[in-house]
Amino acid sequence: MRYGNKPHIKRVSLRNKTSKVKLYIKNMVCRRCKMIVARELENAGLYVSSIELGVAEVPEFLSAEKRKEVHLSLLAWGLELVADRKTILAERIKHVIIEQVHFSTEPLTVNLSHFLSGKLNYDYTYLANLFSDVYGTTIEKYMIAEKIEFAKKLIAVNDLNLTEIADRLHYGSVSHLSAQFKKVTGHTPSFYKQVMIK
Question: What is residue 158's DSSP assignment?
């Protein structure tokens, strides 16, 4: 009897050691956020096996106490551990858009709805309704806001002119970029460059 129990205990213990736990993190939108999350998880005594925007993977189960500790340490940085499925999927939508806007040099070859449906394997209408429920804005408005935030960063760096920025953000023209920039910020890109950046 004792011999028969040992392999069973070993199998369970091995499965626990090799299984990975995904932690979904709200407001994790940049490389700096990834460094903060990695540091906070390591400070909590957790080994981080992988980290991407919005998700970190650890190879161990988190007790309720450890999860609370991690949650509180992340809150100090404006980040939040999330567990409900709607918020997790809404965060995944944000991260796909952030990756496309900030890190992809290739323009979309399909419209945004097909792109997100393909990336996340959900019907776009479902994604759009869920996103609006969670964040109170549309996916399209969020994408425009991300593009304008990135345009502001590119303007601040001062290495690119407006034509180059419009190209980098896959706008058809400088006037289209300028119109969206003014609608979101209340200022033209030129005004923003002259007055807002000091």
Answer: T
Q: Which residues contact 35 (CB under 8 A, 6 or more apart)?
A: none
> Which pair of tokens denotes residue 135?
């964040």
- For residue range 45-100, list pLDDT tens digits in order: 888 999 988 889 998 888 888 889 999 999 999 998 888 889 999 999 999 999 99
Query: Rounded mean pLDDT of the chain?
Result: 85
Instruction: Determine the residue type at 78.
Output: G
Query: What pTM value is reported for the model?
Result: 0.73
Q: Are strands 55-58 and 50-52 parallel, antiparallel or unpaired?
A: antiparallel
Find, among 81, 78, 31, the residue nearest to 58 by Cα. Answer: 81
Average pLDDT in the 163-181 region? 92
pLDDT of residue 157 exceeding 90, the answer is no
Phi-psi region of 88 (alpha: psi -120 to 50; beta: other; left: phi over 0): alpha
Q: 61-85: buried (b, 16+ CB within 10 Å) or exposed (e) per residue?
A: ebeeeebebbbebbeebebebbeee
Q: What is the largest CA-CA distance in the chain?
A: 81
Class of residue 144 by CB neighbours under 10 A (exposed 0-12, middle 13-18, buried 19+)? middle
Of 161, 153, 147, 50, nearest to 100 (Cα)?
Answer: 147
